[in-house]
Here is the input.
Amino acid sequence: MSASIVCGVDGSRNAAGAVVFAGRLSELLGRRLVLVNVKKVPLVPGASALPHAYDDLRNHAVADASDVLERVCEELGLADSVERKVRLGHPVEALIAVCDEEEADLLVVGSRGLGRIRSALVGSVSAAVAAQAPCPVAVVPPRASLSAIAVDSLQRSPRRAPTMPTRRGDTSRA
Here is the structure.
């Protein structure tokens, strides 16, 4: 599979900005949009002693992740053609695996804007995927939830050939 944009979704407001950006970009570039929600199966002390406890926790995590994806698609008015994937495990590893599976052209994630110190203490999914992803990564910062407007303006503006100065002060087209 190719020609896809993968977008990590955790259900937060910052992720919604990333989904809007990824959705508009996928429309503009004619790429499939694949939304991914990753959940960790919680570890509950003593659960291993109960029959089917892990299966129940796993099923609950999958259902919760599916609900997040459906809610995001509904709230943002995304078409049914948007692909949704649920993964269990660590967010960084799972997002990278989906990018590999999809042969993604781009990975889009939101940033919570925790700052350097808090990110160092709790980790940063956006920084880790940017460092490890097999494709380019767009990190949509918290205050840029309207960043899709930039994509819209690119789509509406007439395409012009870039101007290259041929001599000092000359900005005629090359």
Remarks:
- The helical segments are 13-29, 53-75, 91-102, 116-122, 125-132, 148-156.
- The mean pLDDT is 78.
- The longest strand covers residues 32-39.
